[in-house]
Amino acid sequence: MHQDTTAKTFIISSLVWMLLGMGVGLILAIKFVFPDFLPYVSWLGYGRFRPLHINLVLFGWLLTANMGLTYYLVPRLCGTPLYNEKLGLATATLWNLGNLAGIFTLLGGLNKGRPYAEYITPVALVLAVAWVLFCINIFATITQRKYRQMYVSLWYIMGAMVWALFVYVVGNTPVGMISGVNEANVNWFYGHSVVGLIFTPLGLGVNYYFLPKAAKAPLYSHRLSIIGFWTIAFIYVWNGAHHLIFGPVPNWLQTTAIVFSIMMFIPVWTVVTNFFGTVKGEWKQLWTNLPVRYLIAGVVFYFLTCLQGPIQALRALQPVIHFTDWVVGHAHLALIGAFSYFTFGAFYYAVPKMMKTQLYSKRLAEVHFWLTTAGFLYFIISLWVGGVFQGIMWNVTDMAFVETVKAMRIYWIGRMLGGAMILAAQVIFVFNLLYTFFGGANYVRELQRPSR
Amino acid sequence: MFALFFLGVVATVIIPAGTREWQQKTSATPAYTDLELRGREVYRQEGCIWCHTQTNRHLKADNIRYGRYGTPAPPSEGEEYINDNPHYLGNKRTGPDLSRIGGKYSDDWHHAHLRDPRGVTPGSIMVAFTWLYNKDGTPTEAVALVAYLQKLGTSVNWAPAGVPTTTFSPRDVIIEGEEEL
User: Tell me, what's the ipTM?
Assistant: First the structure.
């Protein structure tokens, strides 16, 4: 039997970080429309909140959630209890303390100034130690496994754990050893790999487990999933410089990054084919089975993200979309649309399983899905349309910059309202899950009462 | 797996690090003064990087937009950044690019603008950095920040002679004037 204490701790922690992180995101969105919202105090300034939002949703919400799901699924795939629950709890404590320290340092203006690696060294080290403890626990569980053959989720999760260490080491090359464009190049290698070599394999590993489980259907193709794994391993590393196109980096480096960006179609195709193939003939489950609906919606968004990514890297599009709000939309498509949706689906499946009960309210879960999706589409379409418009205006060189800012207001209002809908939906989601966690047997009796 | 990772790192991180114009020795870019370095600290601390890039790309639209008095600004080159640690190339333009801002406006303009952006440029959504100033409006940390901003992009000799703008940028004046008519 599985104890799941660590998994539960990580999952509940991630819910708290999610509300905080998305709340900060909403404040930022409001500041675009009402720039004098929360004025006069340094730690309420946009420049302090923006890195906080990124770090809270990336490392507080998504990574914590996926670590929790890893603690849930690895013992089950290995047919053995988690190696050490106490170590797991210690890891959770350390991890949460690291994130908490991160909040205060960032609000205090202490940051490394490198996008996606803002946490100052002491905070980053606490998180790194927690990550190593996590890896030890998971690897030890895998070595104790009962089944010799390893399911593809284990491949992806082990990959993410090892890559995270590689990426971390390169990305945290000490400030001072490198400078200028050299540092920017390392920074973008790191920034891109955080998403590509940590969140992507973790998210896909989670989905490879939960989609067949939730849909009660076998995985479409094991061979495709392995091809996907090795092509991700090969191709993702080369993409960093596509963030610096037309910038002060050598042309050959830009072109290399563009070519490898286009090659990303290969792993994406294998992943998407595999997931759609798994639910083929089972499409009615999109209406009846909530986890499956979330996981498949996530795959659709993943596919869209990965269509955008390579095409955005082309020199033909860069002059219009680079530095605009389009890119912000692209980032949210990956992190909300794909990876958060995977996590939502997995939570709806795993939490009742862990608590040996049913979800508290299916109706609230339906509201969560439709409100999140509607808000998210409003949010993201505002950013895409606005971003292209913004890029075109910037290319009209006799238009004063401030005029382009004024023209964007309507799109930023759309983003703010969409964001508010997303946050409201998550409050419902967290309530529903926490009630399932702590409501105990009380409501199950209610659910079992014959309906009117 | 490690081999694949290592291959990518060598090709896209280590080999480019040898690019000649990224090397300290070959660079003629003057070092920052202590005040300017302090200004870079304020820039980092206040998160200016989240709304302002410092990359004038190899694109006509960028060069013309960030040029002055009809002279396009030259694109940013690697050696100009050689003393930048951390780098501030940026990834989002909510506000304009700053790579060629040095000398465009007077110090007084910058202080007025940092303290009350919408008072100087109606429609701006920049943060009002009131905490970089005393209650009576005299700058504290803003002195260093403005010194840094005035340095940006000046290691390349490109800007045509002219008096720094004290009220609005030339294009803004024309547009504001048209609105009044």
Answer: 0.91
